[in-house]
Amino acid sequence: MAIEKLFVKEGIKESEVEEFLRTKFEKAGYSHSLIERTPLGTRIIIFAHKPGLVIGRSGRRINEIAEEIKEKFGFENPLVDVKEVDNPFLDANIIANRIARAIEKNINFKKVANYYLEKVTEAGAIGISIHVGGKLAGSERSRFQKFKRGFIAFSGEYAERLVDKGNAKANIKPGIVGIKVFIMQEMPKEVIYKEGSDEER
Fold first, then answer.
1. Do the beta carbons of residue 132 and residue 178 sit within 8 Å?
2. pLDDT tens digit string along 75-134?
3. Partners of 171 in the beta sheet?
4. How far apart are CA 146 and CA 126, in angstroms?
């Protein structure tokens, strides 16, 4: 198999594992996973706000998940670790998932987005941007709306190094609503940001 096809195949498999874990551990405050190949097998690190719900009593659940991943996705000797997300309000994936679930419960998307702008800022983030797109608030046409507070770098080194990015989907009757969240946890030392400025890099 050509190396390009191998990378594509592995990328698809990792996306499928990510979706599987996201669905499995939604109540555990699932954030994301990392997959590492080692000489002993495949190490899968699960990041979640409530790791106890992932591990289960005496580690039983995590062993079951490792076996399930082995059978479903063909990983040899999967080793599953869990790491705790200390503050869910500073994790972009957790926030995106919470917004998606709220929209599915028919809570107004503007109210939800503004609530999380407030909570993420209170948690100490320098800035947050929430992008919501789809058939919103009974609209027959798809809409796209942004909500932003503070400073966010959208391109360049700062965006790669300092911005946590997350996404999720809400399945509602009119169709799928996409949610993207960007959280900047610290300010670059070279940048001075004045409150009320719309500066974005």
1. yes
2. 888 899 999 999 999 999 999 999 999 999 999 999 999 999 999 999 999 999 999 999
3. 176
4. 17
